[in-house]
Amino acid sequence: MDPAYSLSKSQLLDWLNTLLQTSLTKVEQCASGAVYCQIIDSAFPGRVPLKKVNWMAKVDYEYVHNYKILQRAFDQCNIAKHIDVDKLCKGKFQDNLEFLQWMKAFYDSAVPTDVALNYDPVARRQGCQLPPWAANSAPPSLINKENHAPRNGGGRPPTAGRTAGVRAKPLNAGSAPVGVARQPPPQVDLSRFVTVEEYEELEESAVCLERERDFYFGKLRQVEILLQEID
User: Fold this and answer.
1) Integer CA distances (angstroms), 148 to 144, 156, 196, 199, 205, in order
2) Helices (H), the chain
3) For residue 165, what is the DSSP state?
4) Which letter does DSSP use for residue 27 in this model?
5) Which 8-state DSSP code applies to residue 194?
6) Contact, 36 vs 102, CB < 8 A?
7) Which of 91, 84, 25, 37 is nearest to 59 (CA)?
8) Please, which residues have CB within 8 angstroms of residue 169's CB and are 6 or more apart in sequence?
9) 120: helix, coil or strand?
10) What band does 159 get if pLDDT is binned at 50, 70 and 90?
């Protein structure tokens, strides 16, 4: 058996993020089909029309659109692999993990080293509307550090006079105040802010809840129709 079929979730995500220069954190994020499309594009550059791929897909029919593009690419590249769209669209971990393992095994066996080294995934995604994990942005921890870094005139170390402030001197009769002691900056509660990963998880949870709601609503509607037929 190919070693790729024994790779863990973390190993597969590391491979994907290196290959496609993304920041994926979950295997389930591949369920839309967009990631699978670019894996095949990296193996056969130019065979997949990435500009037609819906990277922002949220619902099943948008996922199906991406899998149609993937299936056409499979046909053009003579890849004999059945794509179980119904299972993959549901976003279940195991189904997408197994398909991703197959993708890794196929990539390792079919893609020459020079093709892998010369592929520019970010350039191939240019012009597409992208989710945060595909936008090739800096990690949230780095962004937070940059945003909260102190600015003191181009990064030069502050002088003693700037940091220490001016102490208030006792006032004599008829004298004017010389200075005011500098107050420490207010503390910012960073726990109120949401990172990119947390936002994506909340967004995915909302989508899953909407799907479940629609599913159970459909079941209730079927029961209602059956009861009406009995009456």
Assistant:
1) 6, 16, 16, 20, 29
2) 9-20, 34-43, 60-76, 85-89, 93-110, 113-118, 121-124, 140-148, 160-164, 196-230
3) -
4) G
5) -
6) no
7) 91
8) 178, 179
9) coil
10) very low
Q: Which of 20-34, 114-128, 141-155 has the highest mean pLDDT?
A: 20-34
The SS3 call for residue 107 is: helix
Give the C-alpha separation, 196 to 135, whole Å: 12
Separation CA 45–CA 118 (nearest Å):
10
Hey, how many other C-beta atoms are within 10 angstroms of the C-beta on 176?
A: 6
* Residue 21: DSSP 8-state: T
Backbone torsions φ then ψ of 161, nearest 5 degrees = -65, -35
Amino acid at 107: Y
Give yes or no for a contact between 138 and 65, defined as CB atoms under 8 angstroms apart: no
CA-wise closest residue to 14 among 6, 25, 29, 28: 25
pLDDT 10s digits, 41-54: 999 998 999 999 99
Structure tokens at 133: 């994990």
Using DSSP, state whether 59 is helix, strand or coil: coil
Q: Residue 158 — φ and ψ, nearest 5°? A: -70, 150
* Inter-CA distances, 75 with 43, 72, 127, 135, 203, Å: 14, 5, 26, 29, 33
